[in-house]
Amino acid sequence: TAKSRGRGGIAIYQSSAHSVARDMFRIEADLRKAIDRKELELAFQPYVNLAEGRLGGFEALARWNHPERGMISPSDFIPIAEDSGLIVPLGRWAIETACMQLADWRKRCPSAMDLNVGVNVSGLQLAQDDIVGAVEAALVASGLPGGALKVELTESAIVENPELARQIFTKLKQFDISIAMDDFGTGYSSLSYLQQLPIDVLKIDQSFIAGMMKSDDSHKIVTTIIALARNLGMTTVAEGVEEYSQAERLRALGCDSAQGFYFARPMAAKEAEAFINKGVCGPSGESGVEQSID
Ligand code: C2E
Ligand code: MG
Ligand code: MG
Ligand code: MG
């Protein structure tokens, strides 16, 4: 639940038991101001088309550079944002900022013309915000076509309210936005949702990728998810690819795209721009995907 996640999240502050509530309250107050004070940033992590060895786009990942506490990871502040309702302004900021950034790259970098951006949307945003309106406003403000945007939701976010998800996804599809199911294989979604909802992309959870070269079972799960996606007309992105051997095997298995530290860590917008302009999809300082995978 959001409550238990929130509690786990603030453990990093090493609070004593009775200061936990006070600490959480302070973080919430700080988060309220963080957007205005520009303490929130988006990091961009590339995903790479495995068959062609080219950059497909970036996932936008929220970062909070707290003036006293330093960098706070999204797994620590997203649960607080959800508990407090701040996920609504935070989520709008993320969608808008990601669209503006990609539009800027598309304008200035010739090789960014076909790139996409993925934005994470939490289940609470579906319930509490007019997500369709927020997305439409961001597309209008940035001038980006809907086809450039991918919305990522976890299985659990969808399962909480499948009927609402279906209505919202249907509207997002009218803008040509693609819908990805994040961390696929770890939630409780029933396979029937894959059939009922207009989902375009399955993002294979990193736990299966981490195990696939060591565990026969993980390898079989990865193979099966790729086949399932293909049979249902969806594409696949492997998350958490850290090694060449995983990337090469995923390509051989027909996985469409991959994302992970092997290619690049999430980076500040400036670094991501350098990555676009280099046109290199391999890990920095080593041979690129074009040499090593093809
Ligand atoms: P996610 O959407 O599944 O994002 C992928 C996470 O895996 C990111 O963690 C990324 O840094 C990490 N990762 C990427 N490649 C590798 C790898 O090769 N190895 C390992 N071990 N990890 C890798 P991050 O940035 O800490 O984000 C964590 C989660 O926070 C995200 O998971 C997403 O669910 C959530 N999140 C991030 N930004 C936002 C946001 O703007 N809105 C919402 N609602 N959630 C967000
Ligand atoms: Mg994601
Ligand atoms: Mg994920
Ligand atoms: Mg995740």
Automatic annotation (TrEMBL):
The chain holds residues 307 to 600 of 608 of the full protein. This is Diguanylate cyclase (GGDEF)-like protein. Residues 24-280 form the EAL domain. The lineage of its organism: Bacteria, Pseudomonadati, Pseudomonadota, Alphaproteobacteria, Sphingomonadales. Transmembrane segments: none annotated.
